[in-house]
Amino acid sequence: MHHERLAPKIFFPAYAFVPRQSPHPTRDPEGHSYGRPEPELIPLTTDNWPESTDYLYGIDLFNHGYFWEAHEAWEGLWHTCGRRGPIANFLKALIKLAAAGVKAREGNPNGIQRAAQRAGELFESIRAAQADPNAPFLGFSFESLVELATRLPHETT
Fold first, then answer.
1. CB-based burial of residue 37 (10 Å sphere; 0-12 exposed, 13-18 middle, 19+ buried)?
2. Phi, psi angle pair for 137, to nearest 5°
3. What's the pLDDT tens digit per position in 94-134?
4. 3-state class (DSSP) for residue 121
5. Whole-model pTM?
6. Model confidence at 50: pLDDT above 90
């Protein structure tokens, strides 16, 4: 499936990291991001997400199979927004989806199941708390995200 890039000016890493299969991106001198400084992140909001290069790049990374890297991009934003509240929980759910992708690359079906199930639960709880549960949230439909979290363990095993 082809996904249009949302942050096309940022290059993808040289490889998609898979634990125990490739050099750790930040800790190994051979890693694709070794020595790179941490980016200065702006807290994600429901108003600024369309211009949040870090958020959009995380989506690009995920859509192109860079699951560990997407996890890292979203985790930085999760910390920046205080790790609490609807946006933080949404980022946490995306992080769990990315973790499921990493587990798929590792060949760990139990890990895929656990991470995807937790992502689905988080998406459902955020959706239930919204004034309009069918409205898009940070550019996504909850229905499509819950469907992906449900489908993911079955497609990767």
1. exposed
2. -130, 120
3. 999 999 999 999 999 999 999 999 999 999 999 999 999 89
4. helix
5. 0.92
6. yes
Name the residue type at position 109. P
- Give phi and psi for 140, each to the nearest 5: -120, 155
Place of tokens 């004034």: 131
Tokens representing residue 113 in the block: 């199941």
Whole-number Å distance between alpha carbons of 98 and 102: 6
pLDDT band at 156 (very low <50, low <70, confident <90, very high): low
Q: CA dist 28 to 23, 24, 25, 36, 70, Å?
A: 6, 5, 6, 12, 19
Task: List, for residues 26-45, the tens digit of each pLDDT value.
Answer: 899 888 988 888 888 899 99
Please list the alpha-helical segments (H only) found in 64-155: 67-80, 86-106, 109-129, 142-155
d(CA 114, CA 45): 28
